[in-house]
Task: structure prediction
Amino acid sequence: MNEASAKSLFLHGARLVLPDGEIEKGAVSLQHGRILEVFSTAAAGKSRGDEQLDLSGLTLLPGFIDVHIHGAVGVDTMTATAADLDRVSQFLATQGVTGWLPTLVPAPAEHYARAIAAIEEVTKEQAGCLRSQLGARILGVHYEGPFVNSHQCGALRPQFFRSFSGPGDLDDLPKLADENAKHLITLAPEIAGGIELLRELRGRGWIVSLGHTRADFDLLEKAFAAGARHMTHFMNAMAPLHQRAPGPIGWGLWHDDVTCDIIADGIHLDREMLRLLLKLKSANRLLLISDAIAAAGRGDGEYEIWDQTITVKDGRTSNAGGSIAGSVISMLEAVRVMKSVGASDVEVARMAATNPARLLGIDDDCGSIEVGKRADLVGLDSGGNVALTLIGGEKVMSNE
Result:
């Protein structure tokens, strides 16, 4: 704990977005990097704490958590150094993100090892509070593949896809040493050995998400019985919905115990489809992700990523085959899009913070504005821009 986070901080004047409603003009007291008290309007004017911040005109939400992001500002997680990852973390903090999972694509074993080594370096230094002031925390790692369906590869490289024959097939998917680090993996249950793989991963403490899949309803039920409860970039890179073959989309819509993450950029999913998903799944079962690639934050152009040329034009990514190749949005932009299709601030807080925290099993520690939780917070101005980001009670981004 550093000296700054040991001080008490009193935030007042903001509209507070709480798990079940809003306080139009409230206050939050912070101590040792955590939320000590949440005040209603009546108590919001009472000055307390070592430092006071007047947030009048801002809306205060829990900090966003991005569980699927490949990079940003020219940095790709597959080739990043620790310093590169810091640059991404700093950028994400300006977008209201307080926690993220660097996401890796199917690749040779040595590339995985190199990427994990860089992530490991950052997480070790974060644990020692040496980097906490720099940006969003790395919470773990997300392997998107390699155990996925080559017929739903999207922009992933199928030459590195695999089937599963036994526990030894996981030896070159290294885990982070930190016992608190989260390990998420996207897989397709229909690959050879898929259900056995799912059971093995769950037994090792991995969080399993279903994606890049053409699995039928019955097999998806077997995956559910084996412990799968989440779906990756729902509706993208999976078999389409058909009246005689509901497949993964029909299954995901039908199953109330399954959550789905979505890329809310108006490109991967039409805005009317976002409205429909909000109605059918509700904000309680949807997560926002960016699925951003290294080009995010850099503008239109051509970029060499994953040994291929990815073109960005008018915010849309595409590879040489014409497939969408991730996005160039941030979680902040996803929040704006969801608000534009009718989601309330309470709903976007659930989709961008609470639900990702719940998926990772850290919702008792962060993901909402509640007493006792980490002071990972974002203040948005009336235009939906980030004016303040706090991570563990420290200002990592402020327009004041």
User: Anything to note?
Assistant: The radius of gyration is 20 Å.
